Each structure stands twice: as structure tokens, then as C-alpha cells.
Amino acid sequence: MNSRIIGGALCAFLFAAVASCTSGSASDDLGGVGLASGAGARAGSIGASGAVNGSGGAVNGSGGAVNGSGGAVNGSGGAVNGSGGAVNGSGGAVNGSGGTQSTTGGSATAGVSSGAAAGSGGRSGAGGAHAGGSGGTANGGSTGGSSGSTSGGACTNPPAAIQGGSNAWASRYWDCCKPACGWKGNVKSGNPMKACDASDNVLGSFDTKNACESGGSAFMCWSDSPWAACDTLSYGFAAASAGNYVCGRCFQLQFDGNSHNAGANAGAKSLKGKTMIVQVINNGGVAADQFDLLIPGGGVGILNACSTTTQGITSQWGKNLDLGAQYGGLLAGCNGDKSCVQQKCQSIFAGKPDLQAGCDWFLNWFNAADNPTFTYKQVACPAAITQKSGLSDPG
């Protein structure tokens, strides 16, 4: 396993509020506190072997990528795809089976309970991605397997290549915490990002206390995992900082085939020519040139509402689960062995198809890339992303 750079910063305790942190393979995320004034900070460092650690999990719609007729119906109802496939439908438009489903949500602690509507907070980790079932070719029809496949088929209308742009890198995380953009005080317009209860049911209130605080019950929804729109394009969610942290804003990431700090990483190399579009849902102490992707099983970091023995914190996935390295998650804990990661995902996410799909996406479409680098620019958010998160694009 490559050595990890555990950086970032220690979580700041603001007015006795609980800070949230996530980390990626190599990154450490410190969550912000959801104070009324919204002061959230997340310190993320980077780990060579394990990107930003995302806590836990995988993703896939419930039932995995169950093919609809000719199409991508994402599991039974799939988190994102309903029957008939949200993206695909019969005849599949872009996504094959598996459609656009995902659960890797941000592991950000979105503010403390006292943050209520205005609480900022929430730390975000790099996030998990999941292929919502690989499924169909561009014209639909092919199946994507129960856990989602590597891609969604050939791209029929891929985004234009970035000319110019800025350079950055991606870490990963999933800590099961409510994201910073799940609080009203942190969004410019429209509703905050949805949050879910311990059983993954969408909550009716945006003011529910963050699960990463003692007594809290608002978690990241499993359907927030990344997913493949086609074989060279995926969608997902991420944490960002500095000028990139604007709740709901989207960025196109164009991978260049290199790793930030994992050397000649085969996974990162395989991403060359692929693109992701991510929506910012969390903040924290990641670097200005870093996006912390929300990916199930990416590592929990300092805060953990996925599987913990901390008094007062509910474990959404169950207690005493092997989530891999605290920073770097399953990939770091398995020393880069993809078969090991797959086995752990199947054990941890049994009965949780959205999360399993996210893990499958990470292993297949993303090829377990460790802290890949890319060129990025701001873009308009695709409807497939905003419909899933509930966050409007602020422009």
C-alpha cells in the first residue's frame, strides 16, 4: 500500500458544535459545524494509497441494475431509476441497465443540530461513485447485472472536451453524515440536498439533526452514489473548498491518466479519456485543487455514522463492520486488491443494492483509481444530477 499523506487539519470545534470530517484514500476531512452562522470547515489531506477516504460503501439502486425491458431499470425501483429506468427507459437513451442510480452520498456532517436551518457545517469527503448499473448500450437493451456494470454503453452525446481549465485531483469518502448542503442556510436558492433516516427513507424536514452528532438521525442517502451515464461519462457528488464550494454548483472533471500521489497507478491511468460531472454537496478542509468524491466504502475519516461504537451515534450500516482504513477506506484496507474490495462490499452492503452499485462503479468504471488527477471547469448541472440531489444549480 502506498504511504498516505494524512493532512488536512484537525476538526475545529466551533461553539461546542460537532465538526465533521471525511477523508479519502489519503485525505483527511474535517467537517464543519452547523452553527447558525454556518461555519463549516473540513480539513482533508491526501493519502497516496487511499484517496480521500470515503466511509463505507457502494451504491446501486435497490435491486441493483435490473434491466427493464430493453432498458435500464435500476433495480426494483432503483434509487434513481424507477421502473422503466430514469435515464434509459425502454430502448435506453444513454444509460444502459442500471440507469442513473447511485448512492454515494456525501459524508459530510452538515451542521450541528443547533445549526438548524442556517447551520452550515457538514464536512464532505471525497465521494463514492457508483455505476448505476452498467447496462444498455447507447440505444439501451443490454443488461447491467445485479450490482451495476462498469459503464452505461456507448456515449451518444458526450460533453465537449475541456479547453484550458484548471488542474486538480480527486480523493474519496463516505461517512454517512448529513452533507453541509443539506441545511437551508447553506444554499443560495431552492431546497437543500435531501437526507435520509437510518433505513434510507428520505426525511421530510431539512432541519433534522446530523447523524454524526450525538442523538442525530439525518444520514447521507444511499442513492447519492456515483453512476455511469455511458462508458466514458459518469455523474456523482463531491465536497470542495475555497471558490469551488458553492452548494449545487457542478463541475466537469476530465481525467488525464495520472495520480496525484499514488505513482504509476493503473486505475488512474485507465481513466484517461473519461469524464465525470459532479455536483458540490459538501465543504471542508480539502485543498483548493481537490474534489472529495462521494463513494461508498471510500473511508469514514474522523466522523463516522456508518459503523461505530461511539456512544450516542447511530450506526446506519450496523456495528463492528470492517470498513477498511479510516483514511482510504476499503481500497486502502485491501492494499489495492480489487477482489478484496469486492468481497468486502458484498458483505457490508448485503441487502443495500444502492451502496453495492456504488462499490461496483468504483471497481469497474472508475477502476479503483487512487487519487486521480484531472482538468476541470464549471458547467451547467445535468437534470439527472439535480433531480437526484434536489439541489438547484446556482450558476
List keywords for this structure.
395 residues; mainly beta; Barwin-like endoglucanases; 6-stranded mixed β-barrel; two-stranded antiparallel ribbon; 5 helices; 11 strands; globular; disordered N terminus
CATH hierarchy: architecture: Beta Barrel
The count of β-strands is 11
Number of domains: 1
Beta percentage is 15-25%
Please outline the major beta sheet.
Answer: 6 strands, mixed, barrel
Mean pLDDT: 71
Oligomer: single chain
Distance between the termini: 40 Å
CATH-level-4 superfamily name: RlpA-like domain
Backbone structural class: mainly beta
The name of the CATH topology is: Barwin-like endoglucanases
CATH class annotation: Mainly Beta
| N-to-C order of helices and strands | EEEEEEEEHEEHHHEH
Strand arrangement, major sheet: 5-10-7-9-8-11
- Total of DSSP H or I helical runs spanning 4+ residues: 5
Return residue spans where pLDDT drops below 50 for at least 5 consecutive residues: 1-150
- Report the radius of gyration as a whole number of Å: 18 Å
* Overall outline: globular
Structural commentary:
- The chain has 395 residues and is mainly β.
- It has a single domain, classed as Barwin-like endoglucanases (Beta Barrel), CATH 2.40.40.10.
- 10% of the residues lie in helices and 15% in strands.
- The protein has helices spanning 266-270, 329-333, 338-348, 353-363, 383-389, and strands spanning 24-27, 51-52, 67-68, 71-72, 166-173, 227-230, 233-239, 250-259, 275-282, 290-294, 372-379.
- The chain has a six-stranded mixed barrel. A two-stranded antiparallel sheet has the order 3-4.
- β6 and β7 form a beta hairpin.
- α3 (338-348) packs antiparallel against α4 (353-363).
- The model is unreliable at 1-150 (pLDDT under 50).
